[in-house]
Amino acid sequence: MDVGTKYMYQRNPNDRPNNLQRPNPNGGNNGDGGPPRSSSSRLIVRTLIVVGLVLLGWYMIQIFTQGSSTSNANAIEIPYSTFYQEVIAGRVKDVTFSGQDANGNFKLLQTVVDVTGQNKSGTSFHFTQLTNGDPNLTTLLNANGVSYQAKVASDNSVFLSILFNLLPWALVIGVFFFIFRRANQGQQNIFSFGKSKAKVIMEDRPSTTFADVAGVDEAKNDLVEVVEFLKTPGKFQKLGGKIPRGVLLVGPPGTGKTLLARAVAGEASVPFFSMSGSEFVEVLVGVGASRVRDLFDQAKKAAPSIIFIDEVDAVGRQRGSSINSNDEREQTLNQLLVETDGFDTRQAVVVIAATNRPDGLDKALLRPGRFDRRVTVERPDWNGRLAILKIHAKGVPMGPDVDLVAIARGTPGMVGADLANLVNEAALLAARRNLDYVTQYCFDEALDKILIGAERPLVLTEEDLNVVAYHEGGHALTGLLTENVDPVTKVTIVPRGQALGVTQYTPLDDRYNYSKEFLESQLVTALGGRAAEQVAIGRITTGAENDLQRVTAIARQMVARWGMSERLGTISFSEREDPFAGTSLATGSREYSEKTATIIDEEVNRIVKWAYDIAVSLLTTHRLTLDRIAKDLRLHETLDARQLRKILQDTGSIESAPLSYR
Ligand code: ADP
Ligand code: ZN
Ligand code: MG
């Protein structure tokens, strides 16, 4: 019934991803850039059009202003004396004075010597008046029939011409600024305009303690060290011990990850800075990265302190895994990597991140020195559920008939948040009925309400639980009675991830080489789940799908890759696949004939059938033990190695267990 009888094989420490570039430590922007962005080329075309239009407009304005301007660019600059001569000669039509400047037109096209001594032809001229004016000028102009007028120098047209001259420049500069900014948004934000937009992160000193968190003892134990470090960072540093820096809390929603992080801060009485991953990946490019920076800056200033990043998967998803890669998210992730790397070892800042989807996380996040500590927060078993119920029932007056043990037993699969909600609903029902305290009936009603509600928690029926108990019992018992297999350390029917139950084996050493006997034992124990369903219940369920995939993969590799079939002989048909990946083999390039393929299939079938028969016969012989394990699993939900051994002793099956086990 489990999708994944869990094997805790050590990963090869050298197996680090090397395809991911380290982020540039002083920029936060990895230089390799993203995929080509077609939108950016469209942007360039659009801005070119805008620039062209602006330039065109500018030219038109120029022509317009020239026409009406007092200072005509085509006018010949003539000396004052020449102007006098031309007037006397009767060749000047009109003149306009504005301040020191004077502009005028000849009656006809005229060739004159200009101020630089050159001959110039034109119909209009400009000259500069004498500083103190010329009292005879008007008389002279009147005498020669020249029409004249005066204009105030600081006239509207001057102002307008200044405006018309500056406006295009302002536009051009504006457009360039715009392009520049757009171009930079894909890169690092050199204007760092995110700074002011970053939310002020409130310093928070939670009063939550470990006493407020129940049912997740393993996670609590893992976090005790972090608390110790934050309380007395000096002690750790003096001893040169490895300082915890990044902790990744992994678990289904509502199991208390946020609560645990706050409890760590509360226990160590240090400030708690929190932000959710989805808050980082917001609106403007560059804001996320600057928020990360602000967050870390604040926390460092307040050290010792805790930074909590909820929903880290929102930022930490594998880079480049989707087609339309999100620059903003990658930039934020890079900043996060830079910041977690950038801690001084003297700074007592611990980063705790939480996620319920650890699989898709960017591998760079999980490297040593970053979030290399993983704390799993499991769904609670019934003891845990009872403890959680007690915590939440504390402030609520309970009637004498309330049986928290029965409630805990009746809510398999529920997590802390579900139970908190259950107590709350029961209290609301009691209030609605004007009761002085919550009765068992209120709890029953509240449970019904929650179970038919929209967000139905994972609660299995009695019948399903029975099947799961026998299935996992079968895995565990075959594991206990088989030689050459890793010891069974724990079996549980508390759902984990996709799995409805899990049997855990812990390898004694790291294994890099598997013997044929080890692999055969693997097949027997993997088939133990389904065999138990057949032996004890008489019908089989779909719950063994994952087991069967694993079994088929191992058997196939034994035959086709490791030459473990006598019929085919010691030949490898070079099918490379992780033997424990549980995936079916690729049917890509085959290097053998149809006939060989048929023999491989037959051999795989034979081996699997052989292993299944062994499992069935083991479980039939030890049926009483199987029943007992299933019963105890229903009762306790989780059995550890000690409890399992006790059962074997009680039922006499211990005699059949491998010597190492007795
Ligand atoms: P997560 O962050 O894992 O989604 P939370 O920490 O936000 O879960 O839990 C939500 C609420 O549910 C908590 O505030 C608390 O009231 C309750 N709760 C969850 N887990 C536990 C627990 N293990 N012990 C006590 N209360 C819990
Ligand atoms: Zn199974
Ligand atoms: Mg949470």
Report on the structure:
With 662 residues, the chain is an alpha/beta fold. It has 4 domains: 7-14 and 453-575 and 592-661, Methane Monooxygenase Hydroxylase, Chain G, domain 1 (Up-down Bundle), CATH 1.20.58; 71-152, Signal recognition particle alu RNA binding heterodimer, srp9/1 (2-Layer Sandwich); 199-376, Rossmann fold (3-Layer(aba) Sandwich); 382-451, Helicase, Ruva Protein, domain 3 (Orthogonal Bundle), CATH 1.10.8. The protein has 22 helices and 13 strands. The strands form 3 sheets. Strands 1-4-3-2-5 form a 5-stranded mixed β-sheet, covered by helices on one side. Strands 7-8-9-6-10 form a 5-stranded parallel β-sheet, sandwiched between helices. It has a 3-stranded antiparallel β-sheet with strand order 12-11-13. Strand 3 and strand 4 (119-128) form a beta hairpin. It starts with 37 loop residues before the first helix and ends in an 11-residue tail after the last helix. Mean pLDDT is 78; it is low at 1-39, 186-199 and 581-588. Bound molecules: adenosine-5'-diphosphate (ADP), zinc ion and magnesium ion. Zinc ion binds at residues 1-2, 5, 471, 475, 529, 544, 547.
